[in-house]
Amino acid sequence: MKKVLAFILFVAAIAAIIWLLIHFGILGKGSGSGKGKGDNSTSVSEIAESNGNTTENITTEEAAKAEKLEISVSKNEYVYNNNMTSFDELIKIVEDKDKNVQIEISIDDTAAKNTVDELTDKLDELGYKNYKKVEK
User: How far is Cα 34 from Cα 44, in angstroms, rounded to an integer?
Assistant: First the structure.
């Protein structure tokens, strides 16, 4: 019985030490540079170049599609970059972007339909077709 109790106490002590090391950041965060040490270390740019994809091959349209504007609509207000924005200011921001930019409109339960419609109608009018509405 004493051996079982001693074993349980030993395991609990080891578990406590491991927890403390993780809790205080000594264990588990990694200290490597992420560059690898073996012969198999190949950079992303080397892989892209071997496939014929270089940064020079990326068109403006592809770059615009990679960029995404995230707009939230709540009640009758617009939020862009975590800031309340008026409709006119939001349209100025959108107009500064390429027509192929992806626009994601997040709509919560309290969003007024006419506020969302006002935005999508203006996007259509300006020729921005890459937008989608996302219900929260």
Answer: 13
Instruction: Check if the beta carbon of residue 134 is closer than 8 Å to that of residue 104.
Output: yes
Pairing of the two strands 102-107 and 131-135: parallel
Quick check: 78 and 90 in contact, CB under 8 A?
A: yes
pTM beyond 0.85: no
Burial class (CB in 10 A: 0-12, 13-18, 19+), 71: buried
Nearest Cα to 104, choosing from 77, 75, 76, 79? 79
Residue numbers in the chain where pLDDT is lower than 70? 27-66
Cα–Cα distance for residue pair 115/71, rounded to 1 Å: 12
Phi, psi at 79, each rounded to 5°: -125, 125
Report the distance separating Cα 77 and Cα 45, nearest Å.
42
Spatial separation of the C-alpha atoms in residues 14 and 65, rounded to whole Å = 52
Q: Counting every residue, how long is the chain?
A: 136
Handedness of CA 59, 65, 66, 71 (dihedral sign): positive
Average pLDDT of the chain? 80
**C-alpha to C-alpha distance for 19 and 10, rounded to whole angstroms:** 14
